[in-house]
Amino acid sequence: MSPGPAKQFDPDLALEQARDLFWERGYDGTSLSALEAAMGIGRKSFYDTFGSKRELYLRSLRHYTDTVIAKIRAGLDDPRNGPLENLERVLGRLQAHHGSPDSLGCLLGVAMGQAGSDDDDLAALVRDALHRLELAFRRNLEAAQADGTVDADASPRDAARALVALTQGMALLGRVAHPMAQQRSIVRAALHGLRP
Amino acid sequence: MSPGPAKQFDPDLALEQARDLFWERGYDGTSLSALEAAMGIGRKSFYDTFGSKRELYLRSLRHYTDTVIAKIRAGLDDPRNGPLENLERVLGRLQAHHGSPDSLGCLLGVAMGQAGSDDDDLAALVRDALHRLELAFRRNLEAAQADGTVDADASPRDAARALVALTQGMALLGRVAHPMAQQRSIVRAALHGLRP
């Protein structure tokens, strides 16, 4: 059997190009033809591979959240440092990212802002991602409490949820206001509040 | 001179109806004809009074931020309670609002998520509102520090900036995930972190 014609594009790369376009322009602001141009594919390949603009959007969001959460988790679990030091490093990286002028915020936050309040698929995807993020923070805070670097009276669950809200807020602010000093303040205050 | 024909609508009410539509559907998702229907006006009155969809949007955002910030400030300055108690009440009201299933989040946060990253007018409007919010929190925290209810080592500026990020995050989460327990956790953790 002869192989079919070579595919004209790399689906993974195309997915990331689509993600960046959605991120910059939002779902409604991203046209099908702009997607095709950015991804370097024609309409037939587009529909064959991704189904529809909406499916492509949900798939690129899932790809994004999986990547970001894996990175944050790896940072929080780095065996070379103590847990609070890892948290400081992870928040420091977010601060540097969202304090820079080219921050687009968090794609998840952008999606939350853009979603109609009745978009159940998107809401489920976002809730799942936020829950995984909460668990990653919570595990880190429990470890930090165990080694005495976080206030023994703090509730790791409450503090983890606050960190989720705080980091989403940092990302949202990063989309419109970029002073690094502001992001630094936020991280300093969060860490100050956690210490014994 | 005889008066012109009576205006067919109340501009303030129309502005709030437009605001609610933008809030629910976003800027791009809100058509001119949906705006006219919600506001009960024809295209000519629309253009005569509001100029364009974009001007109407910026005007409704400004109206919204002025109203919300005035309310938060009044809550933080309530002379019947101490400053930390006022902060608890204000955060409690935000928690109740964003934990309820009909929360649409914060219109400002939605706008931040929806704005193209190069929308300078909107970014300026949002930055100004966030700055006013930061000052309101900061004044409250300074008063709470002075009466000993907030940790003397905390930086009111840093903590105020963290509260801005945290409340924006709460609102964003409220748009897609509504468990009241989550919002309660966030507020508890924030207050725990501030106490001496």
Q: What is the structure about, briefly put?
A:
With 196 residues, chain A is mainly α. The first copy, chain A, contains 9 helices and no strands.
Description:
The structure is a homodimer of 196-residue chains. The first copy, chain A, is built from nine helices and no strands. Chain A is an all-alpha fold and 196 residues long. Chain A has two domains: 44 residues, Arc Repressor Mutant, subunit A; 134 residues, Tetracycline Repressor, domain 2 (Orthogonal Bundle). Chain A is elongated, with a radius of gyration of 19 Å. In chain A, 44% of the residues are buried. Chains A and B meet through helix 6, helix 7, helix 8 and helix 9 of A and helix 6, helix 7, helix 8 and helix 9 of B.
Strand composition percent of chain A? under 5%
Flag low-confidence runs of chain A.
none
CATH-level-4 superfamily name of the largest domain in chain A: Tetracycline Repressor, domain 2
Which class of the largest domain in chain A in CATH terms?
Mainly Alpha
Protein chain pair with the most extensive contact, residues per chain: A-B, 51 and 51 residues
User: What would you call the shape of chain A?
Assistant: elongated
Task: Tell me the number of helical segments of chain A per DSSP (H or I, 4 or more residues long).
Answer: 9
State the order of secondary-structure elements of chain A, H for helix, E for strand.
Answer: HHHHHHHHH
Measure the end-to-end span of chain A. 69 Å
